[in-house]
Design goal:
Number of domains: 2
Oligomer: single chain
Strand content: 25-35%
Mean pLDDT: 90
Number of strands: 15
CATH superfamily of the largest domain: YaeB-like
Number of helices: 4
Distance between the termini: 40 Å
Low-confidence stretches: none
CATH class of the largest domain: Mainly Beta
């Protein structure tokens, strides 16, 4: 049994992508535009300081029933999390109503991105909605309003000329130096090569994580990466990286899913998202049968 839903409006937000949007909303002002045919339903809404906003997560990814969250390392059931990737991609937020002007509501505390469709609005009634005795399950052991912070430590020691050694606990030493382009020699790992490799490796490991989440397998993975650095104004900077993974799979049945996952890996790669450099992903999926 099913029923089509009707959108009553659209959200105008300073957040343009999922990466821009903060978890659970911040203090930025968003506007909710209610379609004219539903404007009459806003009568008397100004009397409420806070509202429940129900909206449709229109760019949500495929859901999994076991979810890893930002708050700890253990997977939890989808319905025991706030993951945006759901069976029915519906979200709800409690927002502060700042102003109503005809069919436009200005609100604070909404984490939706630009263009998100609105499903419904209800007034927040503290005597009904606030539950001071509510238990918060596995989150009771976590500082869940403060996401995990990871630290990655390295040590660099100069040895001679333009060469050195890079170390990190429990890892083999890496001999490093300037590239030939900047007066070094070609046999050492340069920071430029390490930068390109960092994004290349991050995309691969993110892809492997997504494969595991989706219970998919591949036969092999190999990629070539090329970074281009050039003068921009007064500085040499990386302007573009090309990553070309070649992925072998058993047959074509999973080809489209594998293709989508490697593209998603490129979008989710933490290292590339931390860089201003454009990353061009050019995957090739090959079935060996």
């Amino acid at each position: 049994m099913g029923k089509n839903v009707t959108f009553i409006g659209i959200i105008h937000s300073p957040y343009k992508t999922r990466a821009d949007a903060p978890s659970q909303g911040k203090n930025e002002i968003c506007e909710i535009e209610i379609f004219k045919e539903f404007e009459e339903g806003l009568k008397d809404i100004e009397g409420f300081s806070h509202l429940h906003i129900f909206y449709w997560l229109h760019i949500a990814k495929d859901f999994t029933l076991s979810v890893n969250t930002p708050w700890d390392d253990k997977p939890h059931g989808l319905f025991a999390t706030r993951s945006p990737n759901r069976v029915n991609p519906i979200a709800c937020a409690v927002v502060e109503l700042i102003q109503r002007k005809k069919n436009i509501l200005k609100v604070k505390g909404l984490d939706a991105i630009e263009g998100t469709p609105v499903l419904d609005i209800k007034p927040y009634i503290s005597r009904i909605d606030a539950k001071s005795e509510a238990r918060i399950g596995w989150l009771s052991e976590k500082n869940f309003l403060k996401p995990r912070i990871y630290e990655f430590k390295t040590e660099t020691e100069w040895t001679k000329e333009k060469k050195g050694i890079c170390r990190s606990p429990n890892k083999p030493d890496v001999e490093i130096g300037c590239p030939p382009e900047f007066g070094g020699t070609k046999e050492y790992w340069s920071p430029e090569h390490l930068f390109v490799a960092a994004i290349d490796v991050c995309i691969m490991t993110t892809f492997l994580w997504l494969l595991k989440k989706n219970n998919l397998n591949i036969i092999s993975y190999k990629s070539n990466a090329l970074g281009r650095a050039q003068m921009v104004k007064t500085d040499f900077v990386f302007t573009e990286l090309e990553i070309a993974p070649v992925i072998e799979i058993k047959d074509n049945k999973t080809k489209n899913k594998i293709q989508n996952l490697i593209i998603e890996a490129g979008n989710q790669c933490m290292v590339s998202k931390s860089s201003k450099c454009k990353v061009v992903l050019q995957p090739s999926i090959k079935a060996i049968n």
